[in-house]
Amino acid sequence: MKYTFRTSLFILILTFFLSGCQNKATEPQTDESLLDANMIVFKDVIEYSGNGITVNHQKVTITKGGSYFISGKSENGQLIVDAKDQEVQLLFDDLDLTCADSSPVYIVNAEKVTVTLNEATVNTLTDGNTYTSSDEPSATLFSKTDLIINGTGKLIVNANYNDAIQSKDTLLIESGEFIIHSVDDGIIGKDSLTIQTGTFDMTTMGDAFKTTNEDAALGNMTIQNGTYHIQTQGDGFQSMNQLRIVDGQFTMDTSSTAQDSSTKGIKAGTLLEIDNGDFTINSVDDCLHSNGDMEIKAGSFQLSSEDDAVHSDNTLTIQGGTITVLSSYEGLEANEIIINGGDISINSSDDGINAAGGNDQSDSNGRFGGDAFKGSNSKITMNAGTILINANRDGIDANGSIYINGGTIYVNGPEDQANNALDYDQECVISGGTLLALGQASMLQGASANSTQPSFLLALDTRYKANTEVVIKDSQGQTICSYTALKAFQSIVFSDSQLKQGETYTIELDGKSTAMNLTSMVTSSGNTVDPRGMGPNRGGW
Fold this sequence. Notes:
The chain is mostly beta strands. The protein has two helices and 51 strands. It has a 47-stranded mixed sheet that branches. A four-stranded antiparallel sheet has the order 47-46-49-50, with no helix packed on it. The protein is elongated and about 95 Å long.
């Protein structure tokens, strides 16, 4: 029946104005347009006022552009927008809408639809576990056109059928507080997904956030800010193409028992770019992943993964930030790795840093780890930063080459004899920085002869325990390096800008001193011959 505007509507309009719910992405409303706004109240008998509204039992259809205040509660209601080539704004004001067999909010047609969550309101959308249509709609809040969500209120979405919020075009979230429980994906923008800010508490059995358009010019995701708490059995963020994160607070856990499911923290199809942010990720699969390139400019990262902490199929570039890999199969992995800065700490059950051509692949003995990489163009370049590696297999491993131009690098290699602190197929050229690599007595590799900064490789007669202090002094007794080993070791590779060819240095270990005379740019001492009788260790085994 028709609803007559009284004092309650005036208060509602005034409250809306004072809350500042409108913002730059939505056309500002004038006093006159708000006074002409429409109202829909869901209840046993739906009350409404304004133009472009049709009611059929508990189903309300909006057929004209304009602003609509929507409130009330229905145990089996539905709001449909079908306003061709017109812009519609839906102002949710303590709306509690349940639809047993379809989307509670179904946007069929419009030029653009804006959903505004009014200040201090709690709005709830719930669907059933079966829909009358198996095609569309397929989400609790489903839009076939561009969708904008803003305001300072709260939106709770209980998605029992499929996805929670989905736009078949672009989806822009400007603000709001979201609590989402979904039996499949959480928030989807097919052509693009942009989030300016907001608070998101997500529990999903599929991906939490995703884009799906495979067109190279579409399918991108941008996260500008916000706070994200994610528990998912799929990917946390999954962009079909590019994914850029400017800032934000991210806490996420991924888990799944399905062998074929992707359970990565943050995943991009072509490019993952992180400008800043605070990330705590515990993932079954990779924490950060790109099928193309990845660039980390800044941020704080606490990463735990059963697979790789950071993986890029092509190039991984780290400009800065604090990256702490608490646990991983491999810490950093890409075809080419470039480190220009940052504070990086890696704990890995396999290689700490691995450059290998190819892409991530599971093996037959387990879910992860079968990285069948090939390609002599793989390389690692370290220009600056502080890097600490604690690896159960190779510390730094390149199927091609390693180039150290700067930075401070500590490598605690494996305690077994089948791997070592440094492993490369072509060359390891040191021209700057500080490198201390502690490894085992076999599979030894040091710097290449064409290095321009002095270094030495020392094979020790004694195997030293973890927590042994390694002290390196110059001929004047001045300490150049002091470091406490994290693992047992029987070899040392050391390079520093303070080393000079022709000088003698002292290595002190557990009260024992060993003299090292740098007779050449790259000096070896001790039994550095491969135990299999193949001559000096030069890699590739």
